[in-house]
Amino acid sequence: MRLEIDIRKTLQSGDRRFELEAAFSSQDDLTVIFGASGSGKSLTIQAIAGLVTPEQGRIAVGGKTLFDFHQDINLPARKRGVGYLFQDYALFPHLTVRENIAYPLRKAWYLKLSLDDLQEVAEIMASFEIAHLAASYPAELSGGQKQRVALARAMIKKPSILLLDEPFSALDSMLRHRMRMELLEIRQRFDVPLVVITHDPADVEVFGDTLVIFANGRVEEVCGRKKLAAPENEDGWRTKVCWRAQWKKENLVAQNFAMASGI
């Protein structure tokens, strides 16, 4: 699926001013937006999701225009067909797992879900292996369980693309490795392209078929995996991102744990 971004957005707070000028495209189903905190990564995917409105530019996913300043197109978030996993998962603390997952299906808070909707919720909970948690509340869940619930909620309406903002930052090293593998399996099962925000080099190795490097509100570089793997690029993105040592370290920790646990 082709993702096309060319947007501008200015944020002002007192004397502080941040200008985002993001322009890139990707035809891969796995795209990583990489950069330091405050470089504009989250603001960019919020614009894709319809949570932030750019001042200029255009956003298109799979040939469908979501935003175009000149053509006066700005689809509301609920009509964009975009799934979004927040960094802190943003689960409603007063709702059960079942109610959190079902929330996007509600046309109004006071309306009950149809039998078909309830069946769909039951099926996706089974798919994510969280059916036994249906009556639990977020405060009763582990970090990995919260992430599965948030992913199930993001996928319940079968989005055309899934955006993930630092999805593994709250997890420990061993759990990060396992959840990366689960996310790849989810991508294949639901056939949905992923855009992953990160400043973790290990995420780049796993998900970076297209790598978009942000710095100070600008896209500094865009590379595809084939190009990244070329020897002549050894001193380019690899030096900047330095993913290899971290990825091997986490992979080894996870493998040793699995062997010791008999998994």
Could you please describe the fold and organization of this structure?
The protein is of the alpha/beta class. Helices cover 36% and strands 25% of the residues. It contains 9 helices and 11 strands. The chain has helices at 41-49, 97-102, 115-127, 143-155, 173-190, 201-207, 225-228, 237-241, 243-261; strands at residues 3-13, 16-26, 30-34, 56-61, 64-68, 73-74, 82-85, 161-165, 194-198, 210-215, 218-224. Strands 7-8-9-3-10-11 form a 6-stranded mixed beta sheet, sandwiched between helices. A hairpin with a 2-residue loop joins strand 4 and strand 5. The two termini are 35 Å apart. The model has no long low-confidence stretch (mean pLDDT 86).
Question: How are the strands of the biggest sheet laid out side by side?
Answer: 7-8-9-3-10-11
Helix tally?
Answer: 9
**Rg result:** 19 Å
Instruction: State the major sheet.
Output: 6 strands, mixed
* Ends distance: 35 Å
* Helix content estimate: 25-40%
Q: Find the count of extended strands (DSSP E, 2+ residues).
A: 11
Mean pLDDT over all positions:
86
Shape category? globular
- Structural class assignment: alpha/beta
Order of secondary-structure elements: EEEHEEEEHHHEHEHEEHHH
Proportion of residues in β-strands: 25-35%
Poorly predicted sequence stretches spanning 5 or more consecutive residues: none
